[in-house]
Specification:
20 strands; about 20% helix; alpha+beta; about 350 residues; five-stranded antiparallel beta sheet; single chain; 6 helices
Length: about 350
């Protein structure tokens, strides 16, 4: 239960949350590297896949002839489809689907009077760079051939998201409707497009996850204490004692836990030095209770000169750097706190370079 609080990186103290003004237009998720702030975007267009159609036939059981079709999507590897005699339109669709990972072949009926049935090829990769190219025709005999139109049924298209609305607005394109790290730490899925509609994304610290992690710690602690207490009792009716009755190890465990939880943080620079200062206190039975409103006030900035990092210092090893050249990542049980007023000094004498 402590792991979500103890980690110095990617812990509950790093969790971010997003609020989107139009959840039907975009979905947004945030990683711990996301910067708090408000962003205004527009979804100019969604991505779509390129489509081509074949010549029409009367029925899906009609033969398509013999020969070889070469199919390529964008600059991906070509697929050669060898079509033997006796292959129907349905059979050709099965051949393409089994031998090409880049296109999907479907039999469609366009409702025309003479030759309504044809194949529709759809690229499995959306975006402008993933158009389908087909070379080769199939020989139907008698000088007739079966092939595919060069005119697109649907053009391949990139998705576009615009940041801002001024003259200097930034337009970002993506082959799919997913935009990863378009904004630091944010992943955006475009769901619908409307170039005239502004969508607001608010990114903030997810304080609720911190409260729940602290509550999980309190519940975990109480579970251990309660289990030991329950099994340290003597039942006068059955004249039997619990498995921990008189067990010095169990008493030692309780004493060690209570000492750890009730200890005072040695860091002189810490705003909070005891768990009670953030709303965690002992009950008469030796368990813990959490005053959630006290903790929420601190996390939400309603307590003067205190915030999330001050709470984190009570649980995890926290390091801070005064320069972008050095970043604190994590510590271990062997990590020693720097003396008050005397932070560790690091000098970068040379950066690594590739041969």
């Amino acid at each position: 239960s402590m792991s979500r609080l103890l980690r110095s990186a990617n812990s509950s103290f790093d969790a971010m949350q997003t609020v989107v003004s139009d959840e039907e237009a975009i979905e947004v998720s945030a990683s711990s590297s996301a910067a708090p702030g408000t962003y205004v975007v527009r979804v100019n267009q969604l991505a779509q896949a390129h489509q081509l159609k074949s010549d029409g036939l009367t029925r899906d059981s009609d033969l398509v002839g013999t020969g070889t079709l070469t199919i390529q999507v964008g600059n991906r590897a070509e697929s050669e489809i060898v079509v033997d005699s006796g292959t129907t339109l349905d059979g050709l669709a099965d051949l393409i689907n089994s031998q090409s990972d880049d296109v999907l072949a479907s039999v469609v009926d366009d409702g025309s009077d003479t030759t309504p049935v044809r194949l529709l090829l759809t690229s499995r990769h959306s975006g402008e760079a993933n158009d389908i190219t087909i070379t080769g025709d199939l020989d139907l005999g008698g000088g007739d051939t079966f092939g595919f139109d060069t005119d697109s049924v649907q053009e391949g298209r990139d998705a576009q998201i615009q940041i801002g609305s001024g003259v200097g607005a930034i337009v970002i394109s993506s082959e799919s409707n997913q935009f990863d790290n378009m904004l630091p730490g944010l992943s955006i899925d475009a769901l619908s497009a409307d170039p005239t509609k502004e969508i607001t994304i608010n990114v903030s610290q997810d304080t609720s996850s911190i409260v729940e992690a602290v509550q999980t710690f309190v519940d975990g602690y109480n579970g251990v204490i309660g289990f030991i207490n329950e099994n340290s009792q003597f039942d006068p009716d059955t004249e039997t004692g619990g498995i921990f009755l008189g067990d010095r190890t169990a008493v030692s465990v309780v004493s060690t836990l209570q000492s750890a939880v009730g200890s005072v943080l040695a860091d002189e620079s810490a705003k909070f030095k005891t768990l009670s200062s953030i709303g965690i206190s002992f009950t008469d039975s030796g368990t813990l209770t959490l005053n959630r409103s006290t903790l929420e006030d601190i996390l939400e900035g309603r307590t003067q000169d205190a915030g999330i990092r001050d709470v984190q210092k009570l649980f995890a090893i926290v390091g801070e750097s005064d320069t972008a050249g050095v970043e604190y990542i994590l510590g271990t049980n062997d990590t020693q706190a720097s003396p008050p007023g005397a932070p560790y000094q690091v000098e970068i004498s040379r950066a690594a370079s590739a041969a």
